[in-house]
UniProtKB/TrEMBL annotation:
UniProt keyword annotations, A-Z: ATP-binding, Cell cycle, Cell division, Cell membrane, Membrane, Nucleotide-binding
Biological source species: Vescimonas coprocola
Encoding gene per record: ftsE
This protein's record includes keyword Isomerase: no
GO terms (BP aspect): cell division
Gene3D superfamilies: P-loop containing nucleotide triphosphate hydrolases (3.40.50.300)
Membrane topology: Peripheral membrane protein
Protein name (Swiss-Prot/TrEMBL): Cell division ATP-binding protein FtsE
Length: 225
């Protein structure tokens, strides 16, 4: 479960990025986080990954209190979350297999786990048999699927995606969002930041709207400016 309660974040330069944010995302939900540029969406994502510490309020992520978490606990908290970015962030000099196995070795998976898990997640994201490809041998949509596979490989309870379709054309974007919907149907909580309104309205999901560091809408269905 993700719970933000009266969260404020003021950056070192005085920018008040979040000004009292509260919402709860239950296990198994699919949620879009939308809002104009500069409204605070990325700051919320960074609170969830522990990159940013709240100035005030409480942030709970999968049982961890992010305002009190110790450096020693952070790796354990991060294992509960898989993160996907707009620019994929694959390692260009490594194959698909190696990109994924690195993520598994980082949490101490055995070679045997790695050999069985990687084909499974690649099939799940529609990239069966692509283990030996390098990122530059894949299309943008395929690279994002590899990034999704990497986010899933350690079986997190939550996937957080920051503008995952920002570099993709509308058809590829729809495919990626549909894949995230399927992953959600298999039980993973999914939080997607996007400002692609048509894409959001294609899906009948909960939408949390952020504006000027505050929640200004939260509900299921079509959203408008
Ligand atoms: P950028 O990040 O590229 O500067 P913006 O985030 O300002 O772009 O907005 C991109 C598009 O998404 C715009 O057409 C804008 O109207 C739309 N948009 C952004 N936030 C919302 C929102 N809360 N509701 C509806 N449409 C939105
Ligand atoms: P969004 O993701 O909706 O575009 P952000 O969370 O990136 O919004 O930014 C919210 C506000 O905080 C913006 O005014 C932005 O300029 C500011 N901001 C973001 N990161 C920093 C930072 N590291 N230092 C200072 N200000 C920041």
């Amino acid at each position: 479960m993700i719970r933000l309660k009266d969260v404020e974040k003021t950056y070192e330069n005085g920018t008040e990025a979040l000004q009292g944010i509260s919402f709860t995302i239950e296990d198994g939900e699919f949620v879009f986080l939308v809002g104009p540029s500069g409204s605070g969406k990325s700051t919320i994502i960074k609170l969830l990954t522990g990159e940013v510490i709240p100035t005030a309020g409480r942030v709970m992520v999968n049982g961890f209190s992010m305002s009190r978490i110790s450096d020693r606990q952070i790796p354990y908290m991060r294992r509960t979350i898989g993160v996907i970015f707009q620019d994929f962030r694959l390692i260009p000099k490594k194959t698909v297999f190696d990109n994924l196995s690195l993520a598994m070795r980082a949490v101490g998976a055995t070679p045997r786990d790695i050999r069985t898990r990687i084909p499974y997640v690649l099939e799940l994201v529609g990239l069966k048999g692509m283990e030996d490809r390098y990122p530059d041998e894949l299309s943008g949509g395929e690279q994002q699927r590899v990034a999704i596979a990497r986010a899933l490989v350690n079986n997190p309870s939550t996937i957080v995606a920051d503008e995952p379709t920002g570099n993709l054309d509308p058809n590829r974007s729809l495919e990626i969002m549909t894949l995230l919907e399927r992953i959600n149907a298999l039980g993973t909580t999914v939080v997607v930041v996007t400002h692609e309104r048509d894409l959001v309205n294609h899906f009948d999901k909960r939408v949390i709207m952020i504006d000027h560091g505050q929640v200004n809408g939260d509900g299921v269905g079509t959203y408008e400016v």
